[in-house]
Design goal:
This protein folds into 2 domains: 8-25 and 36-135, 2-Layer Sandwich (Alpha-Beta Plaits); 146-234, 2-Layer Sandwich (Alpha-Beta Plaits). It contains 9 helices and 8 strands. The protein has helices at residues 24-28, 51-64, 88-105, 119-124, 130-135, 155-168, 192-209, 223-228, 270-273; strands spanning 42-48, 68-76, 79-86, 108-114, 146-153, 172-178, 183-190, 212-218. The strands form 2 sheets. Strands 2-3-1-4 form a 4-stranded antiparallel β-sheet. It is elongated and about 115 Å long.
Amino acid sequence: MELSKYGSGMAPQDPLRRRNTLSSTDADNHSDPRQNYRLPSSLGLVSTLSFPVIVSTADAMLKSAGVTLVGYEKIGSGHCTSIVRGAIAEVRIAVQAGVEHAQKEGQFLSSLVIPRPFPNLEVIFPLGSHLLEQAQHHRSRISNQAIGLLETRGFPPMVGAADIMLKSANVQLTAYETIGAGLCTVIIQGRVADVAMALQIGISEANRIGEVTAVTVIPRPLEDLEQSLPLASCLIEEQPQPLNLPIEVKETEKELVELPDLGKLPIQTKDSSS
């Protein structure tokens, strides 16, 4: 069974066009008093009906323009929305790339570009305004590992696929995601060849148990994309808690036992015993 049957969801591997967050057009708008509270940025939203497809859509958006991935919104019934932000020109390019990718996968629902959202909009919706400031200090890096996502309708097919994938290839199970309508997605990570092999076997096992709805392979995910995916709690390293010792240690005094005077003890002899 081939991965292409379900739509591989692989984003185009074009050279990255990571531009400056501010374009010349947006820099001119910085004189507007309403924009003095932060760097001018726009919002872009693309909605699909599958979690693997929305992740690969976000990957395509990140690799097509200099935008920052805010995160995902899951509202149930399989509806997922990817949210990015950046300069207006970059956001328009990213949204167009995301729409084309989602349409190619047959899961596109809707899209939206908001040129300069007011602060109140960011307060009401979880749009992550602090992520833009973080993006100014570091550049997104490309991971040398691949990410694989396999979506099923029903929980047992997903668990069965996860089990056989871990046994068939050198991959790591990072987490799983549910988006309503019975759709469950298992997320694995490893080398591209291992991830592809694991997904190939996972598709067969999931179809034997239930139904596969989508499969996505992202060969070279950006750091923004990796950080947006859920992570199993067992993989999060917990800081060791310090051992609280009592400040004062009280030792109980031992009772002294008085020994008898050996000189006053009667000495038994053979004659006395007879």
